[in-house]
Amino acid sequence: MLRLINKHRIFLCFFCLCLGFVASHWSRADDIQKTVPELCSDLEKAFLKRKWGPSPCHQIDWKIGSTSVQGRPLIYYEFGAAEAKNVTLVFSMIHGDEITPLYFGFELAQWAMANMKKYPDSKLVIAPLLNPDGFF
Question: What is the average pLDDT across 8-13?
Fold first, then answer.
């Protein structure tokens, strides 16, 4: 009985690895590759559709940490002192169907642009859209 369970477990692990490989190559990053301005334009449309007002995305010179599976940029920005020991990391929009954190992430970034100079010993890193593929 134990041998049968182990064989099934090995098969399941192998199947998951194969499925992951196929899925990662199914939609190539070259197919959707977007720039930050394109992403911000798409976000502008999404903000207006939801009646959130204009998106603050274009107001910040975002850094790109990587790209999503579908090739969209994963953006973030560091506010405050680079050498600060007090660092806070904020991730938002992890789940594609939970849209309120997206608004919060960009509003927080806008607040940080205006206020982080008041906190010279602090650093705030914001990644407002961790799952662009799930959102779009």
Answer: 47
The answer for residues whose C-beta is within 8 angstroms of residue 132's C-beta and 6 or more apart is 39, 68, 70, 72, 73, 74, 93
CA 56/CA 106 separation, integer angstroms: 6
User: Please, which residues have CB within 8 angstroms of residue 63's CB and are 6 or more apart in sequence?
Assistant: 75, 76, 77, 78
Q: Return mean pLDDT, the chain.
A: 82
Instruction: Say whether pLDDT at 133 is over 70.
Output: yes
Tokens 């007002």 identify what position? 53
Helix axis angle, 36-49 to 100-115, nearest 10° = 120
Q: Taking the mean position of all CA atoms in its chain, how far away is CA 93?
A: 7
Band (105; pLDDT cuts 50, 70, 90): very high
E-state strands within 20-121: 63-67, 73-80, 86-91
How far, in Å, CA of 128 to CA of 136, rounded? Answer: 14
